[in-house]
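sanity check this:
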Amino acid sequence: MVQVSLPTGLTEQQRRRGVQAVVLLVVLLSVSYVAATVAERDLGLLLDTWSRVVAAIIGAGGVVASLASWRASPHSTARRITITALGIASALVLWYLYLTDVLVRATVQSVVIAVVVSAVVFVAANKWFDASLKDWRRFSALTGVIGGAAVSGLLVGNRNMGLFTGSGDALTDRSLLLVPVIAVVCGAVGIALTAVKRQPGKAVVGAAGGAVAGLLIGAFFRSGSLPALEPVALLAAPLVGAALFAGLGQVRGRPIAPAAVTGAAFGWLIGAFGIPLLGDGTIIEAIIGTTVLGALVGLRLGLSPEATMESRIRLERKARAIIFLAPALLFIAATLVIPTIRTMWLSLLDRTGGEFVGLDQYRLAFGDPNFYNVRRWADIFVSFEFLVFTIILAVGLITVLFTRKQIDQFWPPRLSIATGGSVLLAGIALIGWATAPEQAATPTVLTFVAIVLLLGILIMVIRYLKAHPGNSGISGGSGMALTLAMIFLGLALFTNLRGTLFNNIWWVFLVTIVATGVGLAIAALSDGAKGESFAKAMIFMPMAISFVGASIIWRFMYIARPPTNDQTGVLNSLWVGLGQLANSGAAVPVAIGFFLLVGGLVLLALRGFLSGAMGIGWGSVFAALPLAWIGSLFLTGNIGGVTEGPGGQLIADPILFLSGTNQVGAYNNFFIMVPFIWIYTGFAMVILSAAIKGVPSDLIDASNVDGATESQKFWRVVVPQIAPTIGVVVTTIIVTVMKVFDMVAVMTNGNFGTEVLANAMWKAAFTQGNRGLGSAIAVMLFLLVLPIMFVNIRRMQKEFH
C-alpha cells in the first residue's frame, strides 16, 4: 500500500493542503494515462472515461465536504446529522445525474470549462502585463503573438481565411495552421520594433513587418471574402479618415502624424472591405487590401515613441482595470453591442440580407400609411380634444397669473400676452367647431397661429419657471389644469396622427403620465393613512401578473356578445345595464342625484376659491363638469348601450372596445393601454411611496411653521425632494412601454390600427420574411429609447458628482 508521508512540523491546514495536492496530482496522472491509452482507439471511449473520472471527483468531493462540515459544525448532533446526510445525498444525486443525464453532464462541463478558462485567461493576462515592467521585448513579442492569433483566429473562424490540402473529394481543412504561423510573424514584428530605437528606421520596420503579415493573410483569403476594390472608395475613405483623425488629434493636443495614420488605416479598412461587395473580387485585390492595411497598422506602431518606465507603469495600471472589466465588457459586447451593430447593418440590406440597399428599408417604412400617416394634420385643430385643451390651458394659465399676483403683485408680461392669445384661440376654435366643424380647419393661418402660440407658451413657461423658482404658481389646481391640458393636446394629436410610429409615441405619452401621476397620487394620499399597507399591497398585486395574463383578463372584460345574448364582459354588461336604467322610470331620480353631486362640488369650488385653495376649487370644477354632463344624458336617455329595435323594443348595443373603430375611433389603443397602466401604477406607487417617506421631517416641520397648506407642502417641499425618484420611475416606464409587444399581440395582434413598433418588427422580420425592414424598425425603436437613456444617465452622473 502506498503511503503519503508529509514533513513534520507543519500545521494541520498545511498537512491537509498537501494531501489534497497529492490526491489531485494522482487524479490528473490517472486522467492523462487514460487519455494516452484510449485516445488512439476511440474518442467516444475517452470522453466516457473522462465523464466517469469527473463524476467520481464530484461524488468524492461532495462526501468529503459533507463529512468536513460534520466536524466543523457548531450545531446540535441531530442538526449536524441532517446537514451531513443532505450534503452526501446531494453529492450522490449530482454524481448519478452526471453519469446518466446528458444535459446535466453538458451543463457541469460547461461551467467547469468556463471557470477554468476564465481563471487561466485572467492569470495569463496579468502575467502578460507584468512583463511590460520586467522585460519590454518579451512583452512586445507576446503582444504581437496574441494580436496575430486573435486576428487570424477571427478570420479563420468566420471562414474568411482557409488552407486546404489534397484535391477533389479528398480535401483536408488545415486552416487552423494559419493561426500560429501568423501569430509568430506578428511576434517577430514586435521584437523587431523593440530592436530599432530611432526614426525613421522604426517606422520602416513597422510598415514592412505589417505588410508581410497582411500579405500572408490576404494570400489565404477564401473566394467568398475576396473584395472587388473600388478605386474611388479606396482613395476617398483613407483621406477622409486621415483628415478626421488628424483634426481630432489637433484638438486633443496629440501628435498629428500618428493620428492621421490611424485614421487612414480605419478608412482603408472601410474602403477595401466595408464598401465593396465581398465575393466578387480576386486574390490579388485581397492581397492589396490586406497588405496596405497591415502596412498602415505597422507604420502606426512604428511611429509610437520609445517606451519609458513611466509610460510602462501607466500602461500596466490601465491594463489592470481592463483585465478586471474585460469579462463584463465581453459579455456586454456579445449580447448588446455586436447584435446592435449587426442589426444596423441588416437594416441597410434587402429583405434576404444579401444586397446592400442603403436607406431603402427606412423609406419603405415611412412610405407606408399604416406606419406613418399625417394626412389628418389639419383635423387636429377642429377636434373636440383640441377644443378642451385650449379651454383648460387658458383656465390654467389665468390661474397661474392670479396666483402669482397674490404672491408678489407681479404679472409676467409675455406670459400674460400668451394667456390672452390662448383665450382668443380657444374662442376661435369654439366658434369654428360649433358652427362648421367640417370647415373650421380651412384657414391655414389658424394652424400656424396655433402652433406658434403653443410653442411660445411652452418656452415662456419653462423660462419663467427657471427664472423664478419656488413660488411660481404652477402647482395645485393650476398645475393640475396645465397637466390635464397637455393630456388633451396629446389626445388631439394622436387620435389624428395615425400609424405604428405614432401609436408607440402615444403609448409613451399617455401611459407614462397616467401611471406615474396616479401612482404618485396614491402614494401621497395613502401616506400614514389607516390600512395603508393593505391598500398598497392590493394595488401592487397586479405586478405579479404577466403581461400576457393581464391582457387575457382585460380581454374578457372588454368582450362583447351578440345583442340577443346576455353580455358576459364586465364593461359591456355595465354599459348595457346603464342604458336600460336611463330608459326606465329611474332615470329622473338618478339624474337628480347627479345634479345634487354637482351642486355640492360647486359649493366646494366656491369655498376653495374664497379661501385661496385654488387646487380644491379647480379640482371641484373639473369633477363637476363630467357629472353634470352625465346627469343631462340620463334626462335625455342618451346614455348606455341600448338601441331601439324594429318593433320599438330596446335591444343591447355593446361597445367593441378593441375592434370597433367606428364606435371608439383610435381610442381602442387606449383600452389596450389600460392593463399596462393597471400593472405599472402599483410599481410607481411603491417606489414613490418609499421616496415620500424618505423626505426629511425637518422640511415638513419648517413648512408648517411658515403656514403652508397641504397642497403647498406637497408641490413645493415633497415633490422637489422626490424629483430624482420620479425621474427614475418615468424613465423605467418609458423604456418598458417603448418595447411593448405581448399586450398588443394578445389583444389585437396589431389589427384595427393598434400596431406598435415591436409587433411590426416581429411581423416584418419573421412573418413576412423581410429581415431588412424588421431590422430597420428595430433601429428606430433603439433610436427612440436612446435619448431617454442618455438623459437619465447624465442626470444620475450629475447627482453622483
Q: What stands out?
A: Strands lie at 164-165, 172-173, 642-644, 650-652.
